[in-house]
Write a structure and sequence with these properties.
3-stranded antiparallel sheet, single chain
């Protein structure tokens, strides 16, 4: 793995954890010092993140974590709805004990931030699908959706519903109930999308 790859991975993890809030500037000098690298791999990593629509570049100012907008929320959740049910459908019946235990741990452990745990949960349920390209796409979507997940759960009161849907989804995966699990996942994603749309539009 190249230095640029490692820097990009660290920054993606930071976005997933919620380390960089929407609207925050990502200063190349600061990041280079923090990560112990030169500015060149930092700049290249930020360019990759910009190509993935995770940050934006402002002329003569640098990289900015994308602010929260209703339009971005709509796009991100539409893409999640297009890809994640396919991954789940393919994964159910192929889950190992480890996959399901990892999903449960993501729901119960305090070792991760809320947004990082959210990704760990969904990744544990989707990984058995064996579709690495789709999983890479979904990982990028989860890095983008992290601040929206925080807004939904902590800002507009969606935490209890989201947690209940996660537990329900896990039990349906344990039961290998493809139809019901797909329905719960779609309801889960649409509920968050609708609530965020109303919040951000207002």
């Amino acid at each position: 793995m190249s230095t640029t790859d490692r820097v990009e991975q660290r920054l993606r993890q930071g976005l997933l954890r919620g380390d960089y809030p929407p609207g925050a500037w990502l200063r190349q000098d600061d990041l280079a010092a923090e990560l112990g690298v030169s500015k060149i791999p930092v700049r290249e990593a930020l360019q990759r993140l910009a190509a993935a629509s995770l940050v934006t570049f402002e002329p003569n100012r640098g990289a900015l974590v994308r602010p929260l907008t209703a339009a971005d929320a709509e796009e991100i959740f539409a893409l999640r709805l297009a890809v994640e049910p396919l991954l789940l459908q393919r994964a159910i019946g192929r889950h190992t004990i480890v996959d399901l235990a990892s999903a449960e741990l993501a729901l119960t452990s305090a070792a991760h931030t809320l947004t990082e745990a959210n990704w760990q949960f969904h990744r544990a349920l989707y990984g058995a699908a064996g579709w690495s390209r789709a999983l890479t796409i979904v990982e990028t979507l989860h890095a983008a959706v992290a601040p929206y997940v925080l807004l939904y759960t902590e800002g507009i009161g969606g935490a209890a519903r989201s947690d209940a849907e996660h537990h329900n989804l896990l039990e349906l995966c344990r039961a290998a109930d493809v139809r019901s699990a797909g329905r719960v996942l779609r309801v889960h994603l649409r509920a968050a999308a609708d609530a965020l749309s109303d919040s951000l539009a207002g």
